[in-house]
Design a protein that fits this description.
152 residues; alpha+beta; Heat Shock Protein 90; six-stranded antiparallel sheet; 27% helix
């Protein structure tokens, strides 16, 4: 796993006074599409989210990212996964996963037969613990955007 880019807001001056721009901190990561790297990335997202969210919200985001990574590794078709984490100063974090993969029906969020289900709860869990979950399919890639925010 390697961090491709990290950008944090800086200072600017206006009329001789410093003006602080509260722009988001953005981290972009490329990791191999391998389950062995998922726990490391979950810990990194947890560390980044803890700057913006409460401990309970961080735990929920860690769970959602873990499910998203598991699905990307299991169903994706490429050697790498691109991850973009944006920590916003107004108690919000956005995580985007971009990986090779085809489209699928995003409306199905949990197994219909709950008694005999072995898996299939990942998207249901992600949708439940986040404030937003959006899939986009373009050029043979699946892009998943997870948003978690807290009301102040």
């Amino acid at each position: 796993m390697r961090v491709l880019k990290r950008r944090v807001a800086g200072r600017a001056c206006s009329r001789g006074f410093p003006v602080y721009r509260f722009a988001p901190a953005v981290t972009e990561i490329q990791m191999p599409s391998d389950a062995a790297h998922c726990s490391r990335l979950r810990r990194l997202v947890t560390r980044l989210a803890s700057a913006s969210l409460s401990p309970d919200a961080v735990d929920e985001m860690e769970l959602a990212v873990g499910e998203a990574l598991s699905n990307a590794v299991k169903y994706g078709g490429g050697p790498t996964i691109q991850i973009r984490v944006e920590a916003l100063p107004w108690r919000e974090i956005i995580v985007e996963l971009d990986y090779p993969g085809g489209s699928f029906d995003t409306r199905i969020t949990r197994p219909t037969d709950l008694r005999n289900a072995v898996g299939g709860f990942g998207r249901f869990i992600m949708r439940t613990v986040t404030n937003g979950m959006q899939y986009t399919f373009q050029d043979g890639h699946t892009i998943l955007r997870l948003t978690k925010r807290e009301e102040i």
